[in-house]
Amino acid sequence: MNSEPSKISDAALLATHQALFNLWLPLNDLELDHDLKAEIKVIYDAVSAGMFKTLCNSPGKVLLEQMTRCDLLPFYAAIKNAKEVEVMDFCKNGFGSMNPANHKSLLSWFFEGPGCPASARTAMMLREIYLTNIWGAPLALPLTEIGDSPVFVSNPSVWAKVHAPKVPQGVLVYDPQKKTVTSRKGKIDYLVIGSGPGGAMTAHELHRAGKNVVLLEKGNYIVWGSMDTMSCAELMFQRNQASTSNNGIVIRSGEAVGGGSTVNVDLAFSPLESTILTRIQNWVDQGWIDATHYSVGRLSAAYQYVRDVLDTREVEQAELNQDNLVLWRGSRAFGITPSLYHLNRFSTGESPSPVTAKRDAARQLLLKPIQDTNNPLGLIPNADVTEVLFSGEGESLKAIGACFTTTQPWIEHGNSFVDPCGLKIPPGTSVTIHADNVIIAAGTIGSTRLLLKTGNKIAELKNPQIGAGLILHPSVPLMGLFSTEINLLQGLDSATFVDTFGVSPGFIFETMSGLPAYGALLIPGNGKQVYKVLRQFNQCAGFGVMLVDTPSTNNRIMLDLNGNVVIDYVLSDKDKQRFRQGVAMGARVMFLAGAQEVIVPTNENWRRTQKFDPMEVLSLKKIEETDLLEKNLDFIPNRTILTAAHLQGTNKIGPNPDSSVVSTNQRVWNMTTRHEIPNLYVMDSSIFPTSVGANPMQAIYTFARIFTERLIGTNNHGVPAAYRTHPQSKSRRPAFGPDSM
User: What is the pLDDT of residue 49?
Assistant: First the structure.
């Protein structure tokens, strides 16, 4: 076979798609009333057709081509000599034309055959794509009798027009000839890149101090209240289809005004919790952060300010739904103490929006500053910063601004706040903006990407530590099936957690919920078995086991030859051992809460049975089986589903450039002079030296509060901020904060 993939006919691709769609939802095999099945068939066909159209206009088309012509698969060498009937059938006919009776066994071969790990990756990617699409709207409602909560208000475009912030116009000016943005107020004191918790708090505080601040954000600005922004692909990195390079861990990261706070579930772990405070104290003891500014007293004062400005509230016991109570009861029965979350969220029934109760960074920190008529914070969304700009070289190197490219805003529902400053810059335009100081706060992915791209052009920034030591906080979601109604979609989605083992061995249990499309991914087995479990969705409960992972230089964020982000991550043997213990313990807690069956999202043969089929569901039916799980679960990529939403640690803070990317003052190291670049800073989760130990959102806000107090030259007592010189420095460096330069 020497013809190109483009010569594969649309009819052949369609046959492949239809066969895969039917594999993961075999409608004719489902036990449904005849008339109901006929009605569902209409929806089934429409969803399948829409999915095929989408796949043909996305990277997913490559998978269809590979499954239509096996010689295009990266593991073809293992396939072409295989003697199994199903594999020979596939090689001869392609997936769409082979005997349907061989479809399931072929996928089993993919998961465990000699083509692994490449074949297992292909099988898992197909599984993820098809189950996610099949079990979303509109098929999930008639099949599970569970409807999605409304994502949008009844008329989002009208809501947006009524509630969009009134932003002063004409303060920022775009020159289409020079392709520059300037400020009518004069020099821009601070350019902040990224509007997540770190960037939003930093911009908010600098604005309060009277500084002229401009904030650049790659993502969209959604008018608050017009939609539930959680799980919206358009507000996520890589449209919520990101994963590690081996497809072993699903990555969730916000890419919108408000960053992660816009798309997460509002959980608020105080930095004074023992799991976090223990690690911060270790950072102080190691000399990685400044003891003066990160004492318990300073953290406490800063966090109280964070709670006040975000209106963080405590969950009340009466708010716990049956899903939350599963973890609560199971933990108590196990002999450990559960806790109630703090939430950045309106109390039940008090939100001014009918579809969201979030108190995200965009609403709580940026709304008033951008509307300040005397000194407005300049916010430019849909601005993809491609590099930091500099003047001078060597010792005289200073940041002078950034270059960004405008992107097409998401306007499908009319609720994006497009071009709030009225700049009228066409999408795709490369624009320059200058400032006295640059603060990178684009999150672990975004900040690392920007530093790596800039380092490819500026020798002083070419630090091998950039991107290294990635922390993911990988999680295993557990599902329990109960004999009673749970209705996990009713009430608070997350309200309870257990951090008894957060410090040692290093894992946390957190309540969680999800729609059927998410639940389908977690159920091992074939399409019919997935359907059987989801028919009992109202009797399912869930919580996650989150590992506090340890940094490794091999786990890192890199750029490929085209400048795209690559996330390399592999669990160490020690982390696997601790994770194994946590997953098994979580399953025991689920049983003690009354579960009749516990589902772990893995198709590994953890029972070590002789005749094992990875396309057959393997769940735990009794608590004693958790011992085998703890002994044998291997966390094989593309066999066990892991998720990650707490990326940290790729631009570590520290006392010297040999082990860190930024100094204890959060200035980026100049690799030529081994001193700091005096006006280039990083403020987000990427600076954490190790895992922070829990959901990092509140810790990021708190660190940003302390950072900006230091940056403007005083702490909360009005005392000038201290500066600690680099141990190898032979000359006195500037005091912390540009006001002292």
Answer: 97
Name the token pair of 624: 């004693």
Tell me, what amino acid is at 184? R
Comparing CA positions, the residue from 31, 36, 109 lying closest to residue 70 is: 109
Q: Residue 311 in contact with residue 359, Cβ under 8 Å?
A: yes
Q: Bridge partners of 173?
A: 182
What order of strands is seen across the sheet that includes strand 430-434? 172-175, 180-183, 430-434, 398-406, 383-391
**Do 726 and 226 form a contact (C-beta atoms < 8 A)?**
no
Q: What mean pLDDT do residues 539-545 have?
A: 96
Neighbouring-strand partners of residue 667:
681
Other CB atoms closer than 10 Å to residue 353's CB: what's the count?
Answer: 17
pLDDT surpassing 60 at residue 567:
yes
Secondary structure (3-state) at 248: coil
Query: Would you give the DSSP letter of residue 167?
Result: P
What does the alpha-carbon distance between residue 296 and residue 716 come to, in Å, rounded to a whole number? Answer: 14
In angstroms, the CA 99 to CA 97 distance is 7
Instruction: Give per-residue pLDDT as tens, 705-714.
Output: 999 999 987 4
**Following CA atoms 404, 406, 407, 408 in sequence, which dihedral angle do they give, to the nearest 10 degrees?**
170
Element (H, E) at 378: strand 378-380
- Ordered DSSP codes for 7-26: GS-HHHHHHHHHHHHHHHS-
Q: How do strand 342-343 and strand 475-481 relate by DSSP bridges?
A: unpaired
Smallest Cα–Cα separation from 626: which of 584, 688, 570? Answer: 584
pLDDT score of 724: 31
Tokens of 10: 């649309």
- Run of H or E residues at 279: helix 274-285
User: Quick one: 151 exposed, middle or buried, by C-beta within 10 A (0-12, 13-18, 19+)?
Assistant: middle
Q: Rounded to whole angstroms, how far apart are CA atoms 733 and 714?
A: 18
